[in-house]
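Collaborator request, handled under Task 6.
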Amino acid sequence: MSSPMTSMAAMRSFSSDPSVTKKEIPKGTTRRILGIAGPYRRELIGFLSLVVFSSVIGVVTPLLAGNIVNRIAGLEGTAGDVVRIALFIAGLAVLDAASSLAQRWYSARIGEGVIYDLRARVFTHVQQMPVAFFTRTQTGALVSRLNNDVIGAQRAFTSTLSGVVSNVIALVLTAGVMLTLSWQITLLSIVMVPLFVVPAQRVGRKLQSITRESYGLNASMNATMTERFNVAGALLVKLFGHPEAEAASFRGRAARVRDIGVLSAMYGRAFFTALTLVAALATALVYGLGGTLAFDGSLSAGDVVALALLLARLYGPLTALANVRVDVMSALVSFDRVFEVLDLEPMIRQAADAVPVPADDRSVEFDAVSFRYPAPSEVSLASLEDVAVPAQHESAEVLHEISFRAEPGQLVALVGTSGAGKSTIAGLVSRLYDVTGGAVRVGGVDVRQATSDSLRDAIGVVSQDSHLFHDTIGANLRYARPDATDDELWTALTGARIAALVRALPDGLDTVVGDRGHRMSGGEKQRLAIARVLLKAPGIVILDEATAHLDSESEVAVQHALDAALAGRTSLVIAHRLSTIRGADQILVVDDGRIIERGTHEELLAAGGHYADLYRTQFAPDPAAAAL
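Structure tokens returned to the collaborator:
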């Protein structure tokens, strides 16, 4: 009968979704896969050699067993001969066990190596993608490429490759040996193959349907848990959610997964039972027909036993190879999905002839800059957005002929209503995006011609919602300068007006800030972000509404910290509260992607334009209060 491992391998094949066989794999995919296997050429040769060796042992052992039966039945030779053959069989079993261990080592070495190589390449490549890529991509879909698809690709070098090679060799050797023993029994055994394949395919189609539904439900549950179990999601649920409805919805999906699991188990058990039954009937047929031929003198008793043992090695490979196309295509699809990410070219790349930003010039200049956000097809993949086809239309221009210059040490402020384009302007300095017209220069160097490291070192940014990793305060600060000493950390914390608070914490610098820094207040997070910038000590600082969401007390503390951060540095400040930028060297009023006014605070107030209207709106006395 079929071995349990052979049957399980067959079921894995049948549970694969055959829809992958309809997917067109790009030309050259196989060549790229072989390129990935290149570093493991020796391991692959050793692995396949051991697979062949095990297949040969699997055929030789039944023949030796038949030889023993013939000697016993015919009383040929001596008992010592029988013992020697039995010891030889035992020796082959030991060699097969050792071969199995060696195969597992080679398999693990190749598989884990491929996983490491692909994950490292995808992770490194994704980090080079522009911000627009991350704003469109589903994080779960991207993580899936690093996990599920990479593991699926790895199986091509372990399960699929070894399965195809071992099954082909086992089938050829087994069928060849069986034909030499009895062509009648061999042909009859092959005629019974449909009794294995047809029921398995029908069960497989049903399993495919319920497996797809199970995957979808599991993905939905994972998405729900991811959204509800992070700090922001948990807080939203507690404030606005309906716990009973949430729990009922989750239980409904979990119950369906439970029912699918039971149904899948019963289909699987029915298949295995039928497989075992047919194998038992075939074995009985071999003994019956073989016994008849043995009495006629056409076969020996040992040949009958050998044929029965070989029969178990015939049906397993036939069943598996009948579905090998699905296995191979599944592996190719996994590789293709990984290559799809690797082939998406980053829009922001360092020029081949890039030059460093001058250390002695920290000016920022916008020269007739125009900008539109890239179309989805330029920065993302439909499969990572969970949509059928990414939008192809080109977005409208959001910045128009923006020109200004911030001299070294100057503070330039950007003000205007939400959506005017202020943050977009700031993002172009750090080269989060590339301009579509004109040029942005830092230190006189077009940022598109600057080396990435020098541009990154020259600029520090504090946003309105600064991100902290789920790590210690010290680790979050050292993200700006990994080689910073504790004394340098404390100096930065002192400059950010938060050293006393950190010293008062039981764990000090080793205090874990929690997911996204949620264990810290908004003002504390902002001051830690400022300390991180101070530790980095850039020549240019960009503040993107760094005090927009703070209470008055926190705003005062953060503003004092900002004064230390901006001292002696070129500053580009996006401000909602105009009181924070009265002393700016230049104020730019942005509206609908254009600079409509520029000047100092006093000059703009005197002009009586848009800035003056904004200022009066913020600082006009409250009529209701005046009436009291």
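The cover message to the collaborator said: "Residues 126 and 341 are 8 Å apart (CA to CA). The chain has two domains: 4-342, 364-382+394-618. Please let us know whether this matches your experimental observations."
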